[in-house]
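quick one before i forget lol
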Amino acid sequence: MDEIRGTADGTAPVPLSVLDLVTVGSGRTATDALRTSVDITRLAERRGFHRHWVAEHHSMPGVASSSPAVILAHLAAHTERIRLGSGGVMLPNHAPLVIAEQFGTLEALAPGRVDLGLGRAPGTDGATAAALRRTDRLGEGADEFPQQLAELTRFLDDDFPDGHPYARIHAVPGPVQGPSARPPIWLLGSSGFSARLAGVLGLPFAFAHHFSAQNTVPALDLYRDSFRPSELLDAPYALIGVSALASDDEREARRQVLTGALSMVRLRTGRPGLIPTPEEAAAYEFSAMEREFVDSWLSNVIHGPPDAVRTGLDDLQKRTGADELMITANAHGGDARLRSYELIADAYDLPGGVVHS
């Protein structure tokens, strides 16, 4: 259970973690983005963040996280203690055996510090999802999620019953090679389906507050009301993804988060691209409808000087009762994201900071 429940450090009300979308800014490359991810996870480990997750996305120029397992292996090679995981792997896009093999390999590379977070959305548009799954019957994948989850769990535990068609199939690395731990499964969601399923199965739950804020409290209530104790958890444990960016002053914070807002405008209107620079975002002429979307989007992005961000995070945690806050810092450049995590760590007196005489 310790691999699920973290410990709050410093003055933080709950454990703090990192959600890394491996964003690619205009004028930058995927190589730059992946190097920034290494820098972020090293910083997060040094400053006492509990875990660092990456999320599966496809056919989006502004992100470089189509292959979470590959990225996690790279991050594992550059860290020693921090938990690493997927937030998440989109289960309907993959055969359960493949995921079991990938995360069994990660567990062998970084024993005792790998999380397997699973979602049932495609992580992309319908056409790309069809190309991934080699079928245009996309609804079936979401509907079959509980069955796929059960199959994946069986592969991870190597415990298909006798007579099952897969009873003689083993996910390796895995238990067939000797006693070993396996990554704990988390369910991810932005609505009530996965919240209820996670509760019924006694699994930890991660909610995407950063893009579905209106559903956060109802989903967490549903999870807690549905929860049944399991071997993994004796009580509910829920984290929420939070979009937050701290900067040395309010104006700079606004400049940075506007880049993410413009990127979302373009994505929602079928024009996905690299994350724009602050200058591009400042010069962009938003239509009235786009401006309304941006204002709504930014109302759920906690941004500003460190003390203001800390207050916003504290208030959100109190309002939702979240057991953990997983912070995603969306901005054009890696320097702004790294600075944000450092400032938030300082605001909560997390360990590993610079001591000033």
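fyi The chain is about 45% helix and 15% strand.
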